[in-house]
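User: Continuing from earlier, I have the next pair ready.

Assistant: Great, send them over.

User: Here they are, in order.

Assistant: Folding the first of the pair now:
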Amino acid sequence: MKKIVLFFAAAAISHVASAQLPNNSVETWRTYASGTATDLEAPMSWYGIDSLIFNYGPLGGITPAKCMYKDTSAHTGTYAVKMVSKDMVGMVAPGMLVNARPDFDIAAYLANPSGVITDYLTFSGGTAVSSRYSHLTAWVKYAPVAGDVAVLGMQAIKSGIGTGGKDSVIGSGVLYLNATPSYTKVSIPMTYVDATTIPDKLLISFSSSDISDNPQDGSTLYVDDIDIVAGAASVNSLIVNELFAEVFPNPAANEIHFRSTRKNELTLKVYSSNGTLLASVPFTQQVSLSTSQFPIGTYFYQLADLKNRAIQEGKFNVVK
């Protein structure tokens, strides 16, 4: 069962337009039975993994617990989604919110539990699209326990182009969210595998913990006012999202400084406006970069952790 939960937790704009998702303000909810005394709940058009945990958890020796709640501490309107990571006797499962229904072939899995977990999983739904989207946006706040991080992301899917007619991921974006005590708007840029393929659906997910990196019991993520942004996606679409590090001064004349709230090593990557990598510098907590060799203009940066996961992206200007 641990591998089942692991799977669900693993996954400059020239012309900007927003495309509203169904129930993107998470105001309308449904309640459904878990098969126990606990009633489960989820926003209409959205899903959690609570039902899978209650249905299949006991077969894997875990004690099911509710992880997703309707909460009145909303950014706008009446409700937000509250997701809480829970210790279910020996393992911590994250609260999850996804825009596609997860299904699992438990009989096939029990017959061959050493098989590839994705062979037994299907997703019904997602958001149908007919063009590219460059960003996922949402208003979030996050109270992690002991350095935990939340995982927010979107995948662009093209149906039937993979091996054997399977769906293929042609674009993705992810944000690893640190402590965020009040509602903050995050914008997660997408990266595509080529310049032309158009997706036909989007899969969107929010998780209160990164299950692959020591998830903590009690980490709590709130999500409200979710949206997707249409437009070209490239390195030029990186925008400031200073949740992990301060970047100053901006604009910079001689030096620019990056000061991180994290104590572990990060890598700073700096790109030109056409996407050329200009610098890649490992650092811990703070690094200063000379801008004397950079012509006047706009540059884009990315901060990545030790697993090469992008945790912050943005831009800065150089002046003389």
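And the other member of the pair:
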Amino acid sequence: MRDEDSRKLKSAISGILVVDKPTGMTSHDVVAVIRKGTGFRRIGHTGTLDPRASGVLVVLIGPAVRLSEYLVCDKKGYEATIRFGSVSDTYDGDGSVTQTGCEIPSDEEVIMEAMETFTGDIVQVPPAYSAIKINGQKAYDLARKGKDVKLPERHIHIYSFDFIEYNPPELTADIICSSGTYVRSIAHDLGQKLGCGAYLSGLKRTMSGRFSLRDAVPLSDLQKAFEEGTWYQYLIPAADALGDCEEIMLSRETEADILHGRRITADPGEHLPLGKAVSEQGELIALLEFVPETFEWKPKKVFYQ
């Protein structure tokens, strides 16, 4: 393939790879593997996973990387393993872990009652060992230097915090929460609530937005597909990531209008504030904003030129 043809192909391909990230790798490591395997440079992801965590990582390819700002507010789901009886300065097993000397709970009902207090709209303080920046410096860099790190509270929403099983001293729970939630903080705060201390000993992301583990391909399978040249079979159309947007099917004429920044007339009836404009071939062309005053769709972000 000529360089020019290759360039045009890479600028046209846009989509999503849902990866089941293994433990021990950073989200950036996964992006690097996909960048090498596809030969594409325009690759990003939504929702960083710590190296200790595994599970769903949504990777955006090509023009789809510009969707990231519309996906950051999606729900996240996790299977968390919480170890009672110890505390950690990082709120997980990577930090300095010490025993509390306090008796761990033996009654599952007591644990479930405490878990109920962490549902709904709550206020959370992120761990000092986090990537949040303070005056341009990452909090974990300051914490490692022995600095006193005080991060501001943040408002989050816990949709559900469900008990799965308890094998003392470890609790396995299912959590569905808003984006930006630190599950490490939930584990730490639950330990404080029960008076015995706790830290997060294991984490697997089971859901990111509308994508779950059922949609995810193990990274090892994806690497094999790169070698065989069959990785396209795992590519999900970018439009599928925008489930909460209204779908507007374009004709060739209206597609040309959108690509040139022109508005198009909306069909009669009620409309959502945001729409995804899809070509006859099923490609995501643009995000549109509904203008009720003129009953038109206005291009908000165009993905193809």
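Worth noting for the second one:
The CA atoms of residues 163 and 237 lie 35 Å apart. The first strand starts at residue 15 and ends at 21.
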